[in-house]
Structures are given as structure tokens and as C-alpha cells.
Amino acid sequence: MIIAIDGPSGAGKSTLAKRLAKELGFVYLDTGAIYRALALKVLRQGVDLADDTRLAELVGSTQIDLQEKDGRLEVLLDGMDVAPEIRTPEVSQMASKVSALKIVRERLLDLQRDMARRGSVVAEGRDIGTVVFPDAEVKIFLQASAEARARRRCAELRAAGRTADLAETLREMAERDKRDSERDLAPLRTADDALRIDSSTVGADELAIGVLSEIRKKTREN
Fold first, then answer.
1. Hey, which residues does 33 pair with through a beta bridge?
2. In 3D, which of 1, 218, 6, 32 has the Cα closest to residue 129?
3. What does the pLDDT profile of the chain (222 residues) look like in tens digits?
């Protein structure tokens, strides 16, 4: 079974997906972490995104995997866990840019589908229900106000020991929302058969309980 969760940055996709995967015993597939890992490598190597040849070489030679260990998600970039390093604003912005490139999406699309063959999954991202797994049994589009999302992102950054300014986070989030929704390739949009949920004023527990109810109802119907 595949549960697809899409939505903009800061809507609470990761929190919900982790909770559902734990409750259901499914594999948690954080597709955003995959793009972030590649973005981190692009930043480290200083690759110009307009340099098609060098970018193709980097994409083709990069190995990315996700593994759960002791209750935490390891993001393995060429064999090294980079999970603590991929949540910075710089990596977020670069991930949004590289995800709009055809060569990147084609390579990582195959990677995501390969990971899903390990068993039932809860996958979250921006094109999961529309492109990656269009036949997913359950599709959810999670949204929230820009202010609520920015507050959550600032809280995450501060909890990780980084400085965070609400106004700057709002600006960066609006920039990323625009880029993700207006790109030609796999833009952020709601799948026609997705359940739309606004998490602006809903707590994580209440949200998870409601979605689990919908999943079980869907399972009974099938």
C-alpha cells in the first residue's frame, strides 16, 4: 500500500508521515530528503546548474539512500549520513532549484520508486500523488497558512541551534512556493483524488488521528 502526502514546505508533512508510518508499520519515504541530499552535494562541489554536462556527471555518480536507525532517519549521501546537514535554508532553496531540472527528476524518480518496492510506504513530498505514485491508494494534500508554516520552520531551526528570523523565513517560503508551483516539470498541485487538509490550527495528534481514520476507511472500502 502507498500513502502519498503532498503539500508546501512547513505544512507538517514530515511529522504526519512519520506518525502514520510508525502507527501502520510502513516504510517512511521522505522524498524531500532525497532532493536535499543532492542539493547539498551540488553546494559542496559548487556546480553551476546551467552546466548540463557537469550536473549530469554529478547526478549519475551520486548514491542516495534512506534508512531508519534507532528511531531516526539516516540520509545516506554516497554512504555518509548527512541528515543533520540538509535542513538549512541554503539547502532548502537549492533543493527547490534542482528539483525543477529534468535530469534530476528523472534520476530521483527511479530512485523513489525503487525504495517503495521495499514494502508498504508513506511517502511525502510535492509531486507524490500526481507524478511519483499516481496510483497511490490514499492521497493527501496538506496545506497551512504561510504564517503558520513559517512559525513552524523557525521553531525547527531554533530547536536545531540555528538562528531564524520570521520575516526572512516567510520571504524564503514564498519564494520557494512560487518556484515549486510554477515550474514546468511536476509542479506542486493537488491530485484530483486527494483529500485536502488544512493543518494551520490542527495539532499533530488530532491530524494523525483524523488521517488514520480516513486510511482505515479506505482500506475497508477496498
1. none
2. 6
3. 999 999 998 899 989 999 999 999 999 999 989 999 999 999 999 999 999 999 999 999 999 999 888 878 899 999 999 999 998 889 989 998 998 899 999 999 999 999 999 889 999 999 999 999 999 999 999 999 999 999 998 998 898 888 889 999 999 999 989 988 998 888 899 999 999 999 999 888 999 999 999 888 877 776
Residue 157 CA to residue 208 CA, distance in Å, equals 23
C-alpha cell belonging to residue 98 = 534542482
Q: 62, 12 in Cβ contact below 8 A?
A: no
Report the half-sphere exposure of 80 (CA within 13 A, side-chain side). Answer: 10
**Number of other residues whose CB lies within 10 A of the CB of residue 183:** 18
What is the SS3 assignment for 140?
Answer: strand
Smallest Cα–Cα separation from 105: which of 116, 96, 115? 96
The C-alpha atoms of residue 7 and residue 191 are separated, in whole angstroms, by 11
Residues 6, 9, 15, 18, CA torsion sign: positive
CA nearest neighbour of 115 among 81, 151, 64: 64
28 backbone dihedrals φ, ψ, rounded to 5°: -90, 120
3-state secondary structure of 208: helix
pTM above 0.90, yes or no: no
In angstroms and rounded to an integer, the radius of gyration of the C-alpha atoms of the chain is 17
- Cell matching residue 123: 511517502
- CA distances (Å), origin 49, targets 84, 156, 187, 196: 24, 28, 19, 34
